[in-house]
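worker-3 :: picked Polyphosphate glucokinase
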Amino acid sequence: MATDSRAQDVGFGVDIGGSGIKGATVDLDTGDFIGERTKILTPRPATPDAVADVVADLLDRTGWTGPVGITVPAVVQDQTARTAANIDHSWIGTDCAELFRTRLAVDGVPREVTVLNDADAAGIAEARYGSDAARSGAVLLLTLGTGIGSALLVNGVLYPNTELGHLRFPAMDAEKWASSAVKDREDLTYREWARRLDLVLAEYVRILNPQTVIVGGGVSRKADKWVPELTVDVPVVPAELRNRAGIVGAAVAVREGIRP
Ligand code: BGC
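worker-3 :: tokens ->
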């Protein structure tokens, strides 16, 4: 795909995950991908420089030279990573915008980039392109994967950098007990895992009182197998954008100047 044009309402998002770095051109009118998503394995160790090299490679492959939104699985404040639960610890304190701006420069001109938390990006995408419930009132979106990511939204506006996956529960981080990676690792049935998630959700709901909980991540594709097992007293609905959410939200963030 040739260079961006803001007039065409097209953006580009990159989602940095524990196993893969994924990017795609996004139609910002509809929230759909234009063309294929490109995925490259996350380097090991996933240091900032090694990851930036892969993102540069990904953009080279697609030919995109415009602004880029990039998600990381970390708290991002003033474009600087503050935590690193599921990525290399050397991210902590990294000025991510500076890293990518320079590494992704086009013909020596620094690239316009926006970096944000992966779950926050998913929340933004869901609020823009998902169901009406996603932009109505107080919404908690969770991404269930290697960890548990969270995004809090009020009428579609994000409160950034919530880290509910790290709520101590019962004696460890909630994500170490109830993420979908834990379900796989401990070979839990959907019902067994849903019981755990139900207890975690009950705690979130007790404290935050959202009107809707949206569940994303790969496991939400099988939501019919476990959402009915939940007893928590609030509507729990699967995310609509599925695995598009991070990429799409990143593209929206750079377009709309959302810089946590
Ligand atoms: C990180 C969050 C991230 C989530 C999902 C957690 O371990 O602390 O920042 O959103 O995983 O990737």
